[in-house]
Amino acid sequence: MREQKEIDTIVIGSGAAGLSAAICLSRAGQHVLVLEQHDVPGGWCHSFYLDGHRFTPGVHYVGLLGEGESTSELYKGLGIANDLVFFKMNASGYEHCWIGDERFDLPSDFDTLIDNLSKRFPHEKKNIKKYLKTVRTVSRELQLIPKMDGFWDNVTIPWRTRNLGKYGLFSLKRVIDWHIKDPLLKRILNVQCGDHGLPPNQASFPLHCAVMDHYFNGGYYPMGGGGAIVKAMTRAIKKNGSEIRVKQNVKRIILKGDRKKTAVGVELENGEQLFAKRIISNADPSKTYLSMVGAENLSKPLLKKLNHTDYSCTSLMLFLTVAMDVSKSGLDSGNIWVYPDRDMDDFFKEMMAIDIRSGKSFHGMFVSCTTLKDPTSFDGTHHCIEAITYIDYESFKLFKNEETIRSVAYTQFKEALIQKMINGLEKVVPGISNTIVRKELGTPITNEYYINATQGSVYGTEKNFKQTGPFAYRSKSEIENLYLCGASILSHGVAGASYSGVQTAAKILKCKTDDLLKQDQAQSVRIYEAENTSGYPEWIERKIKVKRTRGEKMPAGIDDL
User: pTM for the whole thing?
Assistant: First the structure.
């Protein structure tokens, strides 16, 4: 075993939650060691390159980055805001809803959204206003709960969260059916079900409210992709004197004690043992408890919970480099959600069918052009497209034990699915097939290999009623000195996972999350318009010019350093 400085906390996994926990603890004076099984840190937030073109599998947009809004306050509080630059996506349509032949754009302003919907659906005008205000109110009341402290706060909780109490135990379908009658309007308002992966009849209404409210003021994309957020976080950890190691696969969590188990360290796949005062796992609950702790060390109630835990849907992610002017085909910095004009519950059920090779194209897709979201990444010729569809893990069950060298059957299966996704993409960007320079497909097996996600899940545990809020896994485990953080603990998404890490650090430090996110007026997230280059500072203009000059000179295959 290598000689080492005494470690206060080992963090297993370097997703947004693990990194935010490490920032908070290291800033409090702890020596933290973050262990990552992949060759780069970041988990779902990491970026990778294909022939010099950047892709990010898990960061497609972030909300609430305006001055005084929660994600902005999070980054300021973590002390990384000055290292981050975001581009605000198309203000008139950060989301483009393609429902069958119908089109509707979600603007980045709450009142404008109400006005635009009311003009499109005048017969639902009063209902639209009432429903969207209910969504926003329930979300804000949900955010109040962890901040409640002291006698009077606790006394007034029932009144201050009365709307959450009224609607909290109902599904999205039940509540929207009470308010909205027009089927197309319902589908537009529910388009962001893709951001939690559940159909309206299974989705918790408060959870969906939180997702919608997160983007009511628009979507933002990080300059440099998700990897830029990771870089800012890792820089802060190292600045605080702590450490991150990659290619460190944790085999088990070392326990001591008979009746009362205590976590004291970890053992890596290579046999090396590392010891610490406490362990935080950023892996999902099944990986943490069943793989690294061991069922024999768990209580019966926890084992029962683990055995009844459902994981979210998995995905196919198509990464394309194309040599075409996609803006002429109608693409911009906004995301495109493609759904058929039919009942969303029925369609989600169809998406989860095991036979995913049938049919010529996927009818439900999320399409994003990252080189339009981040103008500094465009080389003047090649655009990067990320297209995603959700599937059930069972469709890839045959390949779950694949080795690193994939079988011929797996490769052929992937090729068929790539073509099916491209066929679907053709309906969004006609002619794109003839301009593809590079194509790669991420599958559930890819998610398992690189992210170590149970069943390739994209949102951790399924975000149903029985697994969110008070029923979610706790940050402090039943094993002494073992803690958890991540998408399965507090919330999913970039911001939700990051807040989970802060929450876990607060539990360890015996303080409130707000104590760890004290605002530094010297910190500020820089934001520019993706669609309007006129306000760019000289350094961004220079960055764009350099990128395009290099794009003219460099052949495909040379990495963007």
Answer: 0.93
